[in-house]
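TICKET: design request
STATUS: open
ATTACHED STRUCTURE:
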């Protein structure tokens, strides 16, 4: 009798250990957005686009043309455990700058081998014109869209769900500019070129004439969020006809740059300088431009 009890106990112990191992492997799953890209942008310019362009507000002029966006999210599912994991389905909700933009269910069964990862793609169409709060948030965020995916993975064979969350950013303003430029010039980035995002750090909005100004920022790959090194970044004053080159510099190994400029009015009739940084692109990377900032010379 005692041997039977011990046998049952050992079986339960083994089953409990297996259950714990399987459960732990599911709990160790990690979901992360590796890239956010815009597959397509529908543009419908209106009268406000002309108004913003005439008044020199290029950010509002570009974003006011956006009617709808097709987003593509590359989500990496990592399994660091020693057991394979099967995900029959998972539900997700998408937010842009904390504004709800849609939800769905991934339609395919996903299997992730031990100590490996797998990338899946989630697509979502956003009708920006029907979501004024989203457009306002993009404008307030200087053209950037912080995309967050929030959901639950439904697992097998256990009747449990694992919550997950991840966030990634994309420069909508730059994507719109690229599309408009492509339409006007007929040029399209080659398949070997990687999109870039150019960030110009904030600086004082008012300085004295002759004061040294240091422009800092970073150029990153849009597909990996890593720096682009050894390329030239130019600082321009946005003018009505021809933009004036103010200074230039080279990115470091991590993509950061530091460019000095001695302040002076760029226009004898205007003491305000509309500053932006520009990367003109090369055979490996697509050109990009930062958000414009105003600086007043007193």
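STATUS: resolved
RESOLUTION: sequence designed for all positions
ATTACHED SEQUENCE:
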């Amino acid at each position: 009798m005692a041997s039977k009890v011990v046998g049952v106990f050992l079986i339960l112990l083994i089953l409990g250990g297996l259950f714990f191992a399987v459960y732990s492997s599911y709990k160790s799953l990690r979901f992360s957005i590796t890239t956010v890209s815009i597959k397509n942008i529908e543009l419908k310019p209106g009268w406000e686009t002309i108004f913003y362009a005439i008044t020199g507000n290029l950010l509002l002029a570009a974003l006011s043309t956006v009617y709808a966006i097709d987003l593509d999210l590359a989500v990496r599912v990592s399994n660091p455990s020693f057991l394979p994991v099967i995900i029959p389905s998972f539900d997700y909700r998408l937010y842009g700058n904390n504004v709800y933009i849609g939800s769905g269910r991934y339609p395919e069964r996903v299997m992730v081998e031990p100590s490996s990862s797998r990338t899946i793609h989630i697509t979502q169409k956003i009708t920006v014109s029907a979501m004024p709060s989203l457009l306002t948030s993009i404008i307030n965020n200087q053209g950037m869209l912080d995309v967050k995916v929030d959901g639950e993975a439904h697992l097998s064979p256990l009747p449990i769900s694992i919550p997950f969350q991840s966030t990634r950013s994309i420069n909508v303003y730059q994507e719109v500019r690229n599309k408009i430029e492509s339409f006007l010039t007929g040029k399209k980035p080659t398949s070997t070129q990687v999109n870039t995002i150019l960030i110009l750090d904030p600086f004082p909005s008012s300085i004295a004439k002759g004061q040294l100004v240091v422009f800092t920022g970073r150029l990153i790959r849009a597909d990996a969020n890593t720096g682009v090194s050894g390329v030239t970044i130019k600082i321009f004053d946005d003018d009505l006809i021809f933009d004036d080159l103010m200074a230039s510099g080279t990115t470091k190994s991590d993509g950061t740059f530091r460019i000095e400029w001695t302040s002076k009015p760029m226009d004898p009739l205007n003491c305000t300088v509309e500053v932006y940084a520009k990367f003109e692109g090369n055979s490996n990377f697509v050109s990009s431009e930062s958000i414009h900032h105003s600086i007043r010379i007193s």
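CLOSING REMARK: The first strand starts at residue 30 and ends at 43. The radius of gyration is 25 Å.
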